[in-house]
From TrEMBL:
Family: Belongs to the UMP kinase family.
Name by which UniProt lists this protein: Uridylate kinase
Record keywords, A-Z: Allosteric enzyme, ATP-binding, Cytoplasm, Kinase, Nucleotide-binding, Pyrimidine biosynthesis, Transferase
Pathway, per record: Pyrimidine metabolism; CTP biosynthesis via de novo pathway; UDP from UMP (UMPK route): step 1/1
Gene: pyrH1
Naturally occurring in which organism (per UniProt): Halobacillus halophilus (strain ATCC 35676 / DSM 2266 / JCM 20832 / KCTC 3685 / LMG 17431 / NBRC 102448 / NCIMB 2269)
């Protein structure tokens, strides 16, 4: 029996969240901390899907600003998410947590292809499923991937783990010391006020499909469990 608030979650980890202070590459101590936190939650019986970003390695926008074809640059970004996903899988399995990576772009030697029903089956068997390679389409983001997969697997919530902020503020708390944190918001607020929670495609998808989103800091160990237990951390964006 679980006393957790949520039965099935999508944990969204940006690439940056895996890179620590440096902001690029992978920081082993951070990946281990994330794995320990995921383990704690898995032990509650919560079903965990993870969507991993790639911004610590490559962002399509940067490539296109350098003159690259946008779609090509975005495919590079999707490949970056696969590298991060494999690093996380490795660390989770070192903690004894059975894990499957599913990619939206087929690479069968590396991981399973994304198959919705199979992903759900893994979750039911209490395997952590990592969704890699974004949606498989250029011009999208891994935030949109989190929204899409959450809808597909009927997750109760998206837990959006941040490494540089502990919730949603009315202004950048690093630049404005008077910035205040919201406890609760609607997607309409996020869209109307242009709050930098996630891109507008992802916000719209969450809004249209009544998906709750909790934005919180992953830098404090134990926070994923607190989020899952429904403790009052971060900012909740309500789907309805
Ligand atoms: N990307 C994409 N389609 C997707 C998901 C991601 O083209 O469905 C590319 C895009 O270029 C993006 C990069 O992958 O910049 C890395 O993803 P994202 O920026 O969402 O990573 P995060 O900011 O979460 O680290």
């Amino acid at each position: 029996m679980t006393t957790a608030r949520y039965r099935r979650i999508v944990l969204k980890l940006s690439g940056e969240a895996l890179s620590g202070e440096a902001g690029f590459g992978l920081e082993p101590s951070i990946i281990q901390s994330v794995s320990r936190q995921v383990k704690e939650v898995a032990e509650l019986g919560v079903e965990i899907a993870v969507v991993v970003g790639g911004g610590n390695i490559w962002r399509g926008k940067v490539g296109s600003e350098m003159g690259m074809d946008r779609a090509n640059a975005d495919y590079m970004g999707m490949l970056a998410t696969v590298m991060n996903s494999l690093a996380l899988q490795d660390s989770l399995e070192n903690q004894g947590i059975p894990t499957r990576v599913q990619t939206s772009i087929e690479m069968r030697q590396v991981a399973e292809p994304y198959i919705r029903r199979k992903a759900i089956r893994h979750l039911e068997k209490k395997r952590v499923v990592i969704f890699a390679a974004g949606t498989g389409n250029p011009y999208f983001s891994t935030d949109t991937t989190a929204a899409l997969r959450a809808a597909e697997i009927e997750a109760d919530v998206i837990l959006m783990a941040k490494n540089n902020v502990d919730g949603v503020y009315n202004d950048d708390p690093k630049l404005n010391e008077n910035a205040t944190k919201y406890d609760q918001l609607s997607y309409m607020d996020v869209l109307n006020e242009g709050l930098g929670v996630m891109d507008s495609t992802a916000s719209s998808l969450c809004m249209d499909n009544d998906i709750d989103l909790l934005v919180f800091s992953i830098m404090e160990e134990g926070n994923i469990k607190k989020a899952v237990m429904g403790e009052n951390i971060g900012t909740i964006v309500r789907g309805k």
